[in-house]
Write a structure and sequence with these properties.
Elements: E1 2-7, H1 15-26, E2 32-36, H2 46-51, H3 55-65, E3 69-73, H4 83-92, E4 105-111, H5 119-132, E5 135-136, E6 142-144, H6 160-178
Parallel strand pairs: 1-2, 1-3, 3-4, 4-5, 4-6
Helix pairs in contact: 1-6
The structure holds flavin mononucleotide.
């Protein structure tokens, strides 16, 4: 089974990317998780889309189409999810008739510096995913608060409890996504 990790933060040293790296390490045998870098996706512009979708967008959509499920890492900015993530989803959601997001199973993880654990960001992302046709796994969720102390200097997740929760979520996602396979 192929899972595509999408990180809503493009900064070096992102804790959210660190969660996806931990998911890669914790994935069961036979499950691969590739992490897609959305930084090169330009701001959505319907005029550009009408001419021809940029190569970075085509590559992103192709990666989504080739995945059995998505694992979306969702940082919290000002009480919501990030603009770069919304922009990438907006591109991928077009055209509506052929979007690779339609019917795609997904799970959410998120790490915040403070106590919220990205609860507000994940709550804001859910209706957007629904609007794109993504089927989000309701449970178990992974919301990681006070992230800084849980990673080493190389953004390896060192907290065993969080690792366990991520492993359990990936296992649940594999089962969930299995129901959507032909
Ligand atoms: C513009 C901006 C707004 C932020 N707003 C929030 C917020 O509303 N709630 C929160 O818990 N953290 C907030 N933060 C802190 C981020 O959640 C924190 O920096 C987190 O580590 C970012 O994810 P990353 O490490 O994957 O880049 C904000 C950070 C930035 C840059």
């Amino acid at each position: 089974m192929k899972i595509l990790g999408i990180c809503g933060s493009v900064r070096q040293g992102s804790f959210n990317r660190g969660l996806l790296c931990a998911a890669q390490e914790e994935a069961p045998e036979g499950v691969s998780i590739d992490i897609y870098d959305i930084e090169s996706i330009q701001p959505y512009n319907a005029d550009v889309e009408k001419e021809q979708a940029p190569q970075a967008v085509a590559a992103f959509k192709s990666a989504i189409a080739g995945a059995d499920a998505l694992l979306i890492a969702c940082p919290e900015y000002n009480g919501s999810f990030t603009g770069v993530l919304k922009n990438a989803l907006d591109w991928a959601s077009r055209p509506v008739s052929t979007t690779p997001l339609m019917g795609k199973p997904a799970a959410l993880v998120g790490a915040s510096g403070g106590p919220s654990g990205t609860a507000r960001a994940q709550a804001a992302l859910l209706p957007v995913l629904m609007g794109c046709g993504v089927v989000t796994m309701p449970k178990p969720g992974v919301m990681v608060r006070n992230s800084a102390g849980l990673f080493d200097d190389d953004i390896n997740l060192t907290d065993q409890d969080t690792r366990d929760r991520i492993r359990q979520q990936v296992e649940a996602l594999v089962t969930f996504a299995g129901r959507f396979r032909d």
